[in-house]
């Protein structure tokens, strides 16, 4: 029986693609890298930069720290992160789940202070008992690590009563590594086929379908 629901942020709760992609373009231009096509840039929405910068953008090891710092300045100090909106139907889903007694947490690879700023800006932080994200020093960075952080902050949560909702294979893999189930949503930035291949229980197209699934499990 599901009692606790951990939500990924980018691509699951919010459409952050415009702000992230703009920050990536600024960063790549500053360090002399070619800007890839939109499809490649879009893949960078969600995964930790320790994965996406070298694998999708070709950022060299010697440039990595300064490139991330440049991106963070645009995204955080200049508030580029606030160029976001919640996906249609998401707030209704959150409200319905809270009213039915579920415990909701945010579980994101985005740095925690940034995640809190965005959720407060959108006015949907009130639905969550905690917001867990990566640390600025990247000691907590992967989805598995953030899931484990959620459990450490809510030690009464049982893994068999907890599910992750995400939009990419990284969410599915992280949930599996942490020992919990994952369902996917198709309105984000990942591939339905990849999520199912990696072990998502289901992938849904609409928030109402997510509510129906949780209520029946």
Task: Write up what this structure looks like.
This protein is an alpha/beta fold and 217 residues long. The chain has ten helices and eight strands. The protein has helices at residues 17-30, 38-43, 49-56, 61-77, 90-99, 112-122, 143-153, 169-178, 192-197, 207-215; strands at 4-7, 14-15, 85-86, 103-111, 130-134, 162-166, 181-185, 203-204. It has a six-stranded parallel β-sheet with strand order 5-4-1-6-7-8, with helices on both faces. The chain has a two-stranded antiparallel sheet with strand order 2-3. Helix 9 links the parallel strand 7 (181-185) and strand 8. Helix 1 packs across helix 4 (61-77) and helix 7 packs across helix 8 (169-178). The longest helix is centred in the first third of the chain and has 17 residues, at 61-77.
Distance from N terminus to C terminus (CA atoms, Å) equals 6 Å
Order of helices and strands: EEHHHHEHEHEHEHEHEH
In round numbers, the mean pLDDT is 95
Strand content: 15-25%
Largest sheet: 6 strands, parallel
Subunit organisation of the chains: single chain
- Say how many strands there are: 8
Question: Tally the helices: what do you get?
Answer: 10
